[in-house]
From TrEMBL:
InterPro entries, A to Z: Glyco_hydro_beta-prop_sf
Gene3D superfamilies: Glycosyl hydrolase domain, family 43 (2.115.10.20)
Native organism: Gimesia maris
Domain of life of the source: Bacteria
Name used for this protein in its record: Glycosyl hydrolase family 32 N-terminal domain-containing protein
Amino acid sequence: MKQLMVTLLVLVGFLDLSLIWAGEKKQEETPLEIGDHRELFVDDYLIGSLKGAELRLHHPVDEGPVLKFDKPWEGLFCGYSTIIKDGDVYRAYYRGRPTAGADGDVGEVYCYAESKDGVNWTKPEFTLFEKQGHKKNNIILADAAPMTHNFSPFLDTRPGVPAAEKYKALGGTMKSGLVAFTSPDGIHWKQHPAGSVIPTKMVPYKYMFDSQNVAFWSPVEKKYLSYFRVFKDKIRRIARSESDDFIHWSAPVLMEYTTLDGEAPIEHLYTNQTHPYFRAPHIYLAIAARFMPGRQVLTDEQAKEIGVHPRYFKDTSDAILMTTRGDDTYQRTFLSGYIAGGIGAQNWVSRTNYPALNVVQTGPAEMSVYVNQDYAQPTSHLRRYSLRLDGFASLRADYAGGEMVTKPLVFDGSELSINFSTSAAGGIKVEIQDEQGQPIPGFTLADCREQIGNEVDRVVSWKQGSDLKSLSGKPVRLKFVMKDADLYSLQFQK
């Protein structure tokens, strides 16, 4: 009956059908419950509408090598690195492998380095394992094949975790399944009595685990999650499994990919490096290695000149950025490369440009991501790239200006803080609207003080001040009007 009445009214010229449907859609939207979470513009989660603005990817700055794989037990085939920031100590873990060989054989060890600032690294000398006649070395796991092929540790942040299990790890190949390890300090490791906690028979794919298989405690989902490599239709894919205790895991679910406009292309992703972003743990970042098999760049002469192993210059790879918010889908907002190969033939060989697991803060306004480069070459090393806090991507408006209106949301806080940058001629204004999109008196664009500058934590204010307690817990929309400006994140603070 309602549909018939609308049709008749439109026919006689009283109503615009598009306005009716737009109004009904607006009323039907369930407000996002963002609480006091920091929200980044790495996807369209907050975005209701855009006009003259866009989401823009920002590329990290190359800061150069920080760790050379130059010990006799390290060498050309070091890889599957992990960076963990534990208080004031940065810990680096990586596979040592001086010569080519089968995955998971006895020639692989796991090495350790540490730093006080994430920039300058040292290799401690332990006496845990003797290798190649060296009683003192930086090896923290050996004689544990095939788990030393892709050992992947993490700092367990679950409340109440026993001190002896502060660190956990998974490692193994299809032959062993993924085997659990624990450690009190990240250096002394022992295999968990449960052994293989994600056995091969549990995974419904012909081939799996042939990569760095990551795990972590999710404070948002309140469970352990593992993202590991599988093959489907001969393409390297990613599966997700869940656990309440790190020992008993659910049947894996294949991760899918989407873009802002629909399904994303399925490409070979060698490592996924999925982890909670430390400033917004409800957003899982995946700085993945995109592998392009058979896409050869170097000539035989170039390969010989840089000393790359003959089996490792027939392909190439780079890093991409994906995110997920805890479901079975990665959002590939940006399909272009995130960290591409640099200038020089050494950057265009097989299995180079592979990101380490985790992004860590390395300065008051800086964070770092680390990348394995010069793979299968005598110059193999770990390299640091820097970016501003939350600076993976931004909501961007150029000089002509642009606008963004959020979906309806409910926040918990008393002030709105933004991470932003503008030019001297640019700026950002914020209007707070009701759920229907009407400006709220006192919080209109005309009332807002324009934000100009470059800060990671600027509180937005209006003529009457910055206090938003009266709006906390109520459905609202935010309207951003921007000129020559980037908005990296926002957060309602208490």
